[in-house]
Amino acid sequence: MNILTEPKIDAHCHVLEPSRFPYEENASYRPAGQEMGSAKYFQEVMACYEVKHALLVGPNSGYATDNRCLLDAIACAPHVFKGIAVVPNDISLEELQQFKAQGVIGVAFNPSLMGFDFYSNIEPLLKRLKQLDMWAQFQVEHNGLLDFLPMLSRVDVKMMVDHCGRPHLNADVSQPGFEALLALGREGRAVVKISGFAKFSQQGYPFVDTRVSVDALVRAFGLQNCVWASDWPYLKAPHRLDYGPMLRIYESMFNPQERHQLMWTSAKQHFGF
């Protein structure tokens, strides 16, 4: 077997189908062309690469808090998909329970796009997520994680960090935000997605400069608390990206046993597939 034929669970991808689920009228960014992809088409992609399950993440781009496309995908293939929704900060416990009943296992926070001030009032929401045993998923960059540490120290919610924490690769791994992420890993307080290299690499494919950060994360978190993700269909990608060549990067980073843990077992255990 090789990486293309090994069973996998994709822990971060999106579905965007504006022909059926139009974008928000005031959307600041409207994905188009290669950035779009329906759940039906994504299942074809998954079948080509032995991806058995996927965690769909509601995109801020286009849809914001409109989760209809996400929920439709899960409803059409509940044995294949689970979801992470984008919700208003003041969403009620009852509304979160309704999302959970429809296959949503957590909520996405995107301060790398929205900034910390937009999320400065989410501590009550984090408490509701903890009450329901749901995930709080953060996409931060550079030192953005530091702003959230006080409230995360007060609310021991299940926490997941996107795209390696998007460190600043012009600095070394001792930068404060990345050090804080590594500390969360050593303490067993979070799961990290080994993904999104194009979002923080200073180079193009195969993103060799990300390797130091990935190695540090694996040492701190252990592979049991790391998950693989494609980030398909690569919103705002600065270069052309394709599923197969991106998979090959992980083949060079991890041996078959490590890949099985990263790309299958960890996600299966954490997300209940």
Number of helices: 11
**CATH homologous superfamily annotation:** Metal-dependent hydrolases
Average pLDDT works out at 96
Helix share, percent: 25-40%
Number of domains: 1
Give the N-to-C terminal Cα separation: 22 Å
- What is the count of β-strands? 8
Ordered list of secondary-structure elements with their pairings:
Blueprint: E1 8-13, H1 39-48, E2 51-57, H2 60-63, H3 68-76, E3 81-85, H4 93-101, E4 104-109, H5 111-114, H6 123-131, E5 135-138, H7 149-154, E6 158-161, H8 176-186, E7 190-194, H9 211-221, E8 226-228, H10 243-253, H11 256-271
Parallel strand pairs: 1-2, 2-3, 3-4, 4-5, 5-6, 6-7, 7-8
What keyword list fits this structure?
273 residues, globular, TIM Barrel, eight-stranded parallel β-sheet, alpha/beta, single chain
Plain-language structure description:
This protein has a single domain, classed as TIM Barrel. Helix content is 37%, strand content 15%. It has helices at residues 39-48, 60-63, 68-76, 93-101, 111-114, 123-131, 149-154, 176-186, 211-221, 243-253, 256-271, and strands spanning 8-13, 51-57, 81-85, 104-109, 135-138, 158-161, 190-194, 226-228. Strands 1-2-3-4-5-6-7-8 form an eight-stranded parallel β-sheet. α8 links the parallel β6 and β7. α8 packs parallel to α9. The chain is globular.
Quick overview:
This protein is an alpha/beta fold and 273 residues long.
